[in-house]
């Protein structure tokens, strides 16, 4: 067992973990942050995406100990301080970018990563960026719309082209 | 100006807030104090005799609470099948035992052999590795036709062979034979409807909890129909009466059919928690899901279409082999029969239709309903053979379809169902308009200029939804009624809780259902909440599948709300000292016709619960009503779809360049949600057509048991938004339910696979490649092979 300490959604947290404890299990089980999901066991689906030191990572594919000292943001940290939805979250609701909601946290984390690095992505760039995220409900159409709308682009005009 | 309130408004979903902030509560997010964890040791061979299971060493490992094997389930019921199909000789289908844990034999890769319950999942997993299982591997049957050969290895030793049933339905053989003999042209096609895995993104989870002092069990499970699980598990497997068994399906991360069924893991966790007096939790891994979730489709069919000299369809005959897998899953038997054969007439007035289905046991994971369930298989055969006929005859595939459309309703097909309403020319018109068919030649030329082939595929479909009239399905072998129920509980201050038997796992019921009640009462949706998914909170319910939620449960909710209105009008009449017949309800106000007297909704609801001035001699206090609704018929959504593909002749890769769906769902309550359902269905259909395949090798090893091997559609596999339109403006309202709705959940998955395949074949044939058919998935290698053979 080792003691790990990290900042999660602005708060310092620590806990005892085994060497083989995955980061996602530490988040879900030790910290009870159950918004981060596990949808596969081969690092394909992206439901477990979190932001680690500013980059999106798959929390099922790293150990909790590897995140010692890191600054993490999970889906629970994406809303505004007053609890209202952040820009990306609000766009997902506005454009119906989610149905069952299971892949959604990972999608939101992937979207914020993209928009930070590429504030005005093309549709092809959005679709390419979501390569590591699987959604079975929406057919991605409204997820792509939501992300482009969150970047300030007029998706109505793009769809009408 | 689009509506922002009530029926027809694209209201934003209220459930989104919790899902977008990580505050959803899925089954795996639920933990019970002191819970233990179970790990299932599963068969790694497709077929084998269990000689011995030695758990001694494993039982002594750290943290192990108890190890269960099939022996622990002797005397316990097996997993039941909910539908008895009667074959063409009048015999009941063969129904092999389906034990919770394997007894004597394993019959597919993934069949559970032993279950280790331990303090932690890691301890359970480690101990499972220490179980010594001696399995004598037996030859496996994987191919359905080979499984029916004389002398084939039997999946179940106590059955005479691997044939579950040999079913025939529709027009008699003599009539069909005569029609084929008289035909001017016959088109025949052999095809396979590829085996799929539903893959909701949330893997299945079961958490069984036992309260010994009260002798009550609770099962938290990832289910589309908690009451059905309570019924099946309580009555048929574990013998727990309903009042001692609560089943909760909280937020569920997608279903697509595969979470309808009652699974061994649910029964196990409930059973084990009673044995060890401690909660037991199972969380499926994705790899485990591939070998334990019921699979979908897997039909091999031959279809023949007879046409007269004027290209009228005169007869249709199909022969299908339907894979059941190793055991009969809950609704496995009805998918290739009553959900498939009854739709084989499609949108066409073909006078003679005969459907033959042989259901076959193999050493593979059980196969059951997956989004569309039987209807995609029917549509794929029919629409592929029509397209082939059009090519053989040199006629326009749109014209050939239009010429044979059913145009007068109601219409009784030769395969038992009666379409209540529809307008297939209207959806075809809409599709043609949105697709810009005249512009195709120019788009093809542009593709050719880039060195690509371009094809246009079109397709029509009909489905039977709103499942189902109980008296009819009872005659057809269903072992349950298929009504639904709703309770409308009006609180003293006028707010409302509606308890519904339907279950939402992505469909947005929490948003849509209040729109209906709000419209009826003239109050704001924010006053209404939906309660679902907990057998202790809702009266009853058969759950969500077959695009039935709004058509069946929504109708129950309408009926209950009508009862509320009737009672509320009595109260209002008393309060205003008027005749009940003169009371009108509008915008949340009860008024007396022809006067300026009115009382508000809240005044009436308060009077019901504080009955100081109340007609107690005539009516009871309180304002709560329940209704059960049993539909008079199925509903029949229909549509016309079109797709343009580009084919890269060097690699065989297919890309979707343009896609249009024109659906008739009858009335639409929330257009935004309906369009989302269609997007999702089309993505799954495109996945089936181009990418997805659940593959076994000849020994029954599952080759596609992870997302590394099973190709799920990704964002870049689907058409860009400028080239993609889903339309539902053609609306012929259902004639027999109060909302006039038909259901929209499965349309996309039914309508899109033949559309895509027809487009690929158009691209190839138009470029001079004589290719009659390519089986799905139409992968680059298959396309390249077809072009170069």
CATH architecture of the largest domain in chain B: 2-Layer Sandwich
Strand order of the largest sheet of chain A: 2-1-5-3-4
Count of DSSP-assigned helices of chain B: 19
Distance between the termini of chain A: 58 Å
Explain briefly what this protein structure is.
The complex is a heterodimer of chains A (161) and B (789). Chain A has helices at residues 23-30, 87-94, 104-117, 123-129, 141-150, 155-160, and strands at residues 2-8, 11-17, 49-52, 55-58, 71-73. Chain A is of the alpha+beta class and 161 residues long.
Q: Could you walk me through the main structural features you see in this protein, from its secondary elements to its overall organization?
A:
Chain A: It is an enzyme of class 1 (oxidoreductase). Chain A: Keywords: 2Fe-2S, Iron, Iron-sulfur, Metal-binding, Oxidoreductase. Chain A: This is Carbon monoxide dehydrogenase small chain. The complex is a heterodimer of chains A (161) and B (789). Chain A is elongated. Chain A contains six helices and five strands, in the order ββαβββααααα. Chain A has helices spanning 23-30, 87-94, 104-117, 123-129, 141-150, 155-160, and strands spanning 2-8, 11-17, 49-52, 55-58, 71-73. Chain A is an alpha+beta fold. Chain A folds into two domains: 2-77, Roll (Ubiquitin-like (UB roll)); 87-153, [2Fe-2S]-binding domain (DNA polymerase, domain 1). Chain A is 33% helix and 16% strand. In chain A, a hairpin with a 2-residue loop joins strand 3 and strand 4. The longest helix of chain A is centred in the last third of the chain and has 14 residues, at 104-117. Chain B is α+β, with helices and mostly antiparallel strands. Chain B folds into three domains: 27-138 and 201-254 and 259-292, Aldehyde oxidase/xanthine dehydrogenase, a/b hammerhead (Aldehyde Oxidoreductase, domain 3); 295-468 and 633-787, 2-Layer Sandwich (Aldehyde Oxidoreductase, domain 4), CATH 3.30.365; 483-629, Aldehyde oxidase/xanthine dehydrogenase, molybdopterin binding domain (Aldehyde Oxidoreductase, domain 4), CATH 3.30.365. Chain B contains 19 helices and 30 strands. Chain B has a seven-stranded mixed sheet with strand order 3-5-1-13-10-11-12, with helices on both faces. In chain B, strands 7-17-16-15-8 form a five-stranded mixed sheet, sandwiched between helices. Chain B has a four-stranded mixed sheet with strand order 20-28-29-30, with helices on both faces. In chain B, strand 15 and strand 16 (313-325) form a beta hairpin. In chain B, helix 9 runs parallel beside helix 18 (747-766) and helix 17 packs across helix 18. The longest helix of chain B is centred in the last third of the chain and has 27 residues, at 549-575. The model of chain B has no long low-confidence stretch (mean pLDDT 97).
